[in-house]
Design a protein that fits this description.
The protein has 16 helices and 4 strands. It is mostly helical.
Length: 496
């Protein structure tokens, strides 16, 4: 049995390490091993990454989405993204972090955490969280803040699917319910685990057991540690920085929302061109820069794997931007800026789950592959079925996330330049290469994709319906024609 590396870390499990007593003809006093102390470089990188990911939401995503809508709705999109970040930040410190990254009760632990960190109870500047290396920890406050930025940007991605027609009040209620019932359980399922030190300690105890009874007890203890993880983590699903948790999760929720709200007034009959591709390009550029914190920061440490995720984020994005450009040029006759930045975002989405697992050439191929697929969905599939995914959240984030998630199972292969799987049991106290079978890993990745699609898709549909039956989802036709800037917020993005 082996434990796959995952981005989530259990809290407080990297305390005193199990120590072994030296055998000798003379008795020796055992000395406790000093608890690990966070490295200043790791801490600094994690805090910088946190700020970079926040920049992805505000102003990055806000400007990217804002430029894509019509002038009369620019301010509404900015307001939605900004307030989502504010709302989720508060929810996160109240109970979201606890439900996501602490141990839940009994069988529920596979799906949701507990309440031991509600209101950040017990968290101090000295509290630590595990990383992916034995004996290496980071300040828990830094880890909590880093994960908070992921919780913030995920629901903010959703609003692009039903932009220009939803009530601001409905957005806030939906986000409150969605992060609680959809995001936190998915993130817990994928990223929560006991951590490398807890596994190493249990594996050492098993190795030290001398008789069958002791071995049985030690094996049960090791099994319990391995079972102290989210459902998809137990399956062995790989998601380095959020392919399932962020992009597939938000993408399918966006599609369901677009379908349930219906098309914008005049969709298919009136021109709905982006009002400022300049703003969109600025937003996309901020997203690309911020994504280095998103992906490379997800290693939690500042080491070679961090550099690998950094490089993969660079090359996959560049390849995807070029790929989209040339596909669009060949099919439509002109290379567009919108196509370039859309391709870049698709590349960022696809490389997210693979960023710490694939080699640079694998990331390059992933970027080249994802753009044609996403281009097909936003230009052909959407037109064929007629749904109004206003800013192509499903076509880019969900489809790109699916390609990246499944592709991770392939590109992690060592013989394709990937890093392979990691076992913390073969050599307790140090990560070692684990057994990798491509077909098995790809099947696991597909299961994780389907799990996310069903949980988020069905759950989001229920939430949309509840909100529609109570406060209503959509603004009136007159308010929509006037624009949400004035009808919902009483102000304009531009006053000439």
């Amino acid at each position: 049995m082996y434990r796959l590396p995952s981005r989530g870390a259990a809290l407080g499990l990297a305390g005193l390490a199990l120590f072994l007593m030296s055998g000798s003809a003379f008795a020796e006093d055992a000395a406790a091993v000093v608890a690990p102390v966070p490295n200043k470089g790791d801490t600094a990188w994690l805090l910088v990454s946190t700020a970079l990911v926040l920049m992805m939401s505000v102003p990055g995503l806000a400007l990217f989405y804002g430029g894509l809508v019509r002038t009369k709705n620019m301010l509404s999109v900015l307001s939605q993204v900004f307030m989502i970040v504010s709302l989720v930040s508060v929810i996160w410190v109240l109970y979201g972090y606890s439900l996501t990254f602490t141990e839940g009760g009994g069988t529920l632990n596979a799906f949701i955490g507990g309440f031991s960190r509600v209101f950040l109870k017990g968290m101090t500047p000295d509290s630590t969280a595990a990383t992916f290396s034995n004996g290496v920890v980071v300040p828990e406050l830094a880890y909590m803040a880093f994960q908070m930025t992921f919780a913030c940007i995920t629901p903010a991605l959703i609003v692009g699917a039903f932009a220009e027609r939803i009530k601001f009040s409905a957005v806030l209620v939906f986000v409150l319910l969605w992060v609680t019932l959809i995001y936190f359980p998915i993130a817990h399922s994928v990223w929560y685990w006991a951590g490398p030190d807890a596994i190493a300690d249990a594996a050492k105890a098993l190795a030290a057991a001398t008789d069958d009874a002791a071995k049985k007890v030690a094996q049960d203890a090791l099994d319990a540690v391995n079972a102290n993880a989210g459902y998809l983590q137990q399956l062995g699903a790989l998601d380095f920085a959020g392919g399932t948790v962020v992009h597939i999760n938000a993408g399918i929720a966006g599609l369901v929302g677009a379908l349930m709200l219906g098309k914008r007034v005049g969709y298919g009959r009136e021109a709905m061109a982006p009002h400022s591709l300049t703003m969109t390009m600025i937003g996309a550029s901020l997203l690309w820069v911020g994504w280095f914190g998103f992906n490379a920061g997800s290693n939690l440490e500042a080491n070679g794997t961090t550099a690998l995720a950094f490089v993969n984020t660079f090359v996959a994005t560049a390849a995807a931007a070029m790929s989209w450009l040339f596909v669009e040029w060949a099919t439509k006759g002109k290379p567009s800026l919108l196509g370039m930045v859309s391709g870049a975002v698709a590349g960022l989405v696809a490389v997210t789950p693979a960023s710490g697992y694939a080699g640079p050439m694998g990331a390059l191929v992933l970027g080249l592959v994802v753009s044609p697929a996403c281009f097909f969905f936003v230009s052909t599939v959407k037109n064929k079925f007629g749904y109004d995914d206003a800013l192509d959240v499903f076509g880019v984030h969900c489809i790109g996330g699916i390609i990246g998630a499944i592709g991770t199972g392939i590109l992690v292969a060592p013989y394709l330049g990937g890093v392979g799987l990691t076992s913390y049991e073969i050599k307790p106290g140090a990560g070692s290469p684990g057994e990798y079978v491509m077909a098995a890993q790809v099947l696991i990745q597909i299961k994780a994709v389907l799990y996310t699609l069903v949980w988020s898709g069905v759950g989001s549909a229920i939430l949309y319906k509840l909100i529609d039956l109570t406060i209503g989802l959509r603004v009136g036709k007159d308010a929509e024609r006037e624009g949400l800037d004035v009808s919902e917020h009483g102000e304009r993005a531009y006053n000439y």
